């Protein structure tokens, strides 16, 4: 809950520093429509308009129980989402979302038609609207013109995001070779990016690497029947992750240090899960987590490595203790826990590892060499862990938050904090729930084709953008 005194002070400080006030972002709440208004689908695909038509059919079709069974081609059999979809821009119409299907673009010249048709609609994009592109990954084996067009799309998305207003977001889905627009994770990513669950995800390209994964039986409870461990769950982002995973149907094991026992118990009770008091740097932490999950809940499916600490100091002045403690909590513990789970034989049912990185792990940050080593480490760790989970239908991915309003960032000096809030295209700090929504998406069956990636939740922070 926002403190009215600090809110007023930050507004005053923003005014003094010449910052414009941020537009409040709309977050998910029960009963909200997936998209609150008209949706424009532009673009083409292989074959005349094939991919764009398939996406339009998905968005506009009548809602029914989705089938989680892939057809013989490995693509999901899709039921529609009942949205109000248009295939051609109507002058002066206000759209809540614009979806640009660019999978068939094979030369930069071919960007003209769909992109300029979209451009004319953006002035009237609804407050909190969405722009989502669907394109293909550019690789060295592409013909140069194909690679140029595909890579160009990424930079256009980032540019549209930088120009967006009114709390609207712009993001892209980048499909790997051979992944159809109807693959479970392409569909899952589209739904995530259109919804308010992605309120603070802005200017990002989300890669869908494979056709793995499945659509959930219930989009409001994609984690039903899953048991998820969340470390550092007593407060801040970890507590929000515990609440969000539980909201999405998971049974949660909330882990934190014994000193945070009271807060931990409160979170565990709130989400009807169980609490496990544990320092994750304990040598047997992995075994303890697994024993607890198996004994209390019968299985373990999802691990969210969220616990983290900072011990900031300019690198030249850093002590061994500052360096070692951050390495121990933020990365060494995660590696050891993963190793214990992967060798246990009990983490094999489409398992998911989601680890919290940071924009510091991508770009570095003054005074945070120790933290940067660990948060960059997380990005490398998930990339190399994902292939180990693939034989079991599992994935490992990371979420890299930018500036998020928590007790950790509340300790920053007021002016630094206010400047940090403004350093992204949405000109505000994110909330713990924004990180939690991305974690829940990556933990879900509909993200099974997102493999070893790092998704930024940063409002398009300039750091490392
Ligand atoms: P926080 O300090 O509010 O909460 C961290 C939690 O981890 C605490 O409850 C703490 O007790 C627990 N923890 C610390 N060491 C532990 C250990 N050894 N064993 C078990 N639990 C332990 O932090 P937060 O802001 O909620 O951050 C959560 C994660 O997100 C961290 O990994 C952090 O690095 C990352 N992150 C935060 C931000 C931000 O802006 N707040 C930005 C980027 C990344």
TrEMBL record:
Domain Ketoreductase: 226-402
GO BP, sorted A to Z: monocarboxylic acid metabolic process
Annotated SMART domains: PKS_KR (SM00822)
Gene (name only): fabG
This protein's name: 3-oxoacyl-ACP reductase
PANTHER family, per database record: 3-OXOACYL-(ACYL-CARRIER-PROTEIN) REDUCTASE, 3-OXOACYL-[ACYL-CARRIER-PROTEIN] REDUCTASE FABG
Top-rank lineage group of the source organism: Bacteria
Entry's family note: Belongs to the short-chain dehydrogenases/reductases (SDR) family.
InterPro entries registered for this protein in UniProt: KR_dom, NAD(P)-bd_dom_sf, Sc_DH/Rdtase_CS, SDR, SDR_fam
């Amino acid at each position: 809950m926002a403190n009215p005194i600090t809110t007023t002070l930050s507004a005053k400080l923003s005014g003094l520093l010449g910052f414009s006030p941020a537009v409040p972002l709309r977050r998910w709440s029960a009963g909200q429509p997936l998209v609150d208004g008209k949706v424009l689908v532009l673009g083409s695909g292989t074959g005349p308009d094939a991919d764009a038509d398939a996406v339009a059919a998905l968005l506009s079709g009548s809602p029914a129980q989705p089938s989680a069974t892939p057809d013989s081609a490995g693509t999901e059999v899709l039921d529609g989402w009942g949205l109000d979809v248009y295939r051609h821009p109507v002058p002066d119409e206000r759209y809540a979302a614009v979806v640009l299907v660019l999978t068939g673009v094979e030369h930069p010249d071919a960007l003209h038609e769909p992109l300029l048709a979209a451009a004319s609609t953006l002035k009237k994009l609804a407050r909190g609207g969405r722009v989502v592109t669907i394109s293909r990954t550019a690789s060295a084996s592409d013909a140069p013109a194909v690679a140029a067009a595909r890579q160009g799309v990424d930079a256009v998305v980032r540019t549209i995001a930088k120009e967006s207003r009114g709390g609207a977001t712009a993001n892209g889905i980048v499909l790997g070779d051979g992944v159809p627009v109807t693959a479970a994770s392409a569909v899952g990513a589209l739904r995530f990016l259109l919804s308010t669950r992605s309120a603070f995800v802005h200017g990002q390209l989300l890669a869908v690497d494979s056709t793995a994964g499945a659509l959930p039986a219930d989009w409001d409870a994609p984690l039903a029947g899953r048991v998820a461990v969340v470390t550092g769950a007593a407060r801040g982002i970890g507590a929000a992750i515990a609440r969000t995973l539980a909201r999405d149907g998971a049974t949660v094991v909330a882990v934190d240090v014994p000193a945070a026992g009271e807060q931990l118990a409160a979170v565990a009770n709130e989400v009807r899960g169980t609490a496990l008091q544990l320092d994750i740097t304990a040598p047997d932490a992995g075994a303890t987590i697994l024993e607890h999950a198996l004994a209390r809940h019968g299985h373990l499916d999802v691990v969210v490595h969220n616990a983290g600490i900072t011990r900031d100091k300019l690198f030249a002045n850093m002590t061994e203790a500052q360096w070692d403690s951050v390495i121990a909590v933020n990365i060494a513990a995660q590696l050891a826990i993963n190793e214990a789970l992967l060798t246990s034989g009990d983490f094999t049912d489409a398992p998911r590892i989601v680890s919290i990185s940071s924009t510091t792990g991508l770009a570095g940050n003054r005074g945070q060499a120790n933290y940067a080593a660990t948060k960059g480490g997380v990005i490398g760790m998930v990339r190399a862990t994902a292939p180990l989970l693939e034989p079991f239908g599992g994935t490992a991915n990371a979420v890299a938050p930018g500036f998020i309003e928590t007790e950790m960032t509340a300790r920053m000096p007021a002016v630094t904090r206010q400047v940090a809030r403004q350093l992204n295209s949405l000109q505000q700090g994110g909330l713990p729930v924004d990180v939690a929504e991305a974690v829940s998406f990556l933990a879900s069956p509909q993200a099974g084709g997102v493999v070893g990636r790092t998704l930024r939740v940063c409002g398009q922070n300039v750091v490392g953008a």
